[in-house]
Amino acid sequence: MYQTKVKPWLHQEQIAQKIDGKRAFALLCAMRTGKTKMLLDDFGRLEDRAEVDDLLVIAPAGVYHTWLTAIDDHVGGSLASRLSVHLWEASAGRQAERDLEEFMAIRHRPRILLVNVEALSSVIRARVLCKDFLKQRASMLAIDESTTIKNPTARRTKFILNELKYVTAYRRILTGLVSPKNPLDLWAQFQFLDRRILGYDKFTAFRARYAITKQVDFGGRYPATIVVGFRPDDVETLHRLIEPHSFRVRLEDCYDLPPKMYQFRDVELTDEQRKVYQKIKDDACARLSDEDHVSANQVITQILRMHQVLLGHVGLEDGRTATLPERRTDELMALLDEHDGGKAVIWVSYDDDVVKLTARLRLEHGEASVARFWGGNREEREEEERRFREEEGCRFMIATASAGGRGRKWDVADLVVYYSNTPDLEHRSQSEERTQGVGKVRSVLYVDMRVPGTVEDKIIATLRKKITMASVINGDNYQSWLI
User: pLDDT band for position 154 (50/70/90)?
Assistant: First the structure.
């Protein structure tokens, strides 16, 4: 049997030397390499030297609860006995509001405030709280899974860059995959840290320097600027610019891990699916051939329409979604029956499939056999995760990558099934790591369900190669994607 061994790799000491004294720093570390501990150690050192009093952690909704456990696990000594921690929640009751008031009134000991990044897009109370907290005393602001602020036009990104950045003494970002879609994802994350790292105050200027663009007339008042590629030398330049301000480590740098294994599980289409798929494919090719210019987004939109049919969904003209007979669910049940009784994580792209698969698994394996982690069970999903991790009879976790893809530890499972994939490389990369872990002695098997000879082949191939689809699709090759 494969034995996992911790390597004599002292990255905690290395990071302490590299990060010490830096006002802005990026922890570009894979899941379970210790980046949460690195940040908490950093905060502890600065607090001990009276350089900061408070820490604000902004993290995705699916992750920020886990910081409570991390703080208990990694903060010790004098700091642990003095530390006050508060988790902000939008739907909190009166007692929680009183607890928050008491927390904000503390001035004689260090504090950590945890807030989910989604709230900063629209919840005024969350915005006011973050700004007031940072203004009260010398503070550190950390963005966990910082790719959540990679879009410079997003409301939460603008708020963090324009309102929070300038009222904090120390800034940190934490992520495993800093640019999952393209190198332009770097700008907002490092602009938050320090504008001097990349050297551009405006995203448009940064894009003009590092991306190959062209002007396209879509019939509007002004031509649109679209990105068509990147120069390898420029990507290397960006790596050199961020290197002095970041620390990069992969899980395999820290541990000898069992190898990942990949397989396909082929699915046959029903006659109804085959007819609808061909019709949508012909329609997509006809539409794109009429365009003067075809963008990657246009091609991906058509790919997703075709992909939905492979899962048994079809969009109607009135906006509703109809179902088609499909064999994928039966194939999934057969695959799970072949599993040796261990636990499995099943990733799906659409909420409708969460509901469908839950009903089928409960019917065949019992009510308690299934846990779920998706947008439809925000209030219960932490408890469902606990059941999956701790209860032997809870064998299956059904999750969407957008909800459960980050920060979760599901290493009790040795089988991962992609019932369907999104075209998002970050979703794939993050979701694969949920079942990896220190102490793992069995390899994880990753099974992609697919219909051979369809767009699903292209989607899976690019994701497995760690390539983002948008970077390899252009107006000249769209026909090769719409198989």
Answer: very high
All structural domains of the chain with their residue ranges: 5-254, 261-481
**Per-residue pLDDT reduced to its tens digit, 94-132:** 888 899 999 999 999 999 999 999 899 988 999 999 999
User: Which two three-digit tokens encode residue 199?
Assistant: 């050297």
β strands within 7-123, DSSP E:
24-29, 54-59, 84-87, 111-116
The domain 261-481 having CATH identifier 3.40.50.300: the answer here is yes
Whole-prediction pTM value? 0.65
The DSSP line for 384-429 is HHHHHHH-TT--EEEEEHHHHSSS---TTEEEEEESS--S-HHHHH
Domain 5-254 grouped into CATH 3.30.420.10: no
C-beta of residue 207 within 8 angstroms of C-beta of residue 227: yes
Q: Residue 417's closest CA among 347, 337, 333?
A: 347
94-104 and 124-136 helices, crossing angle to 10° = 20
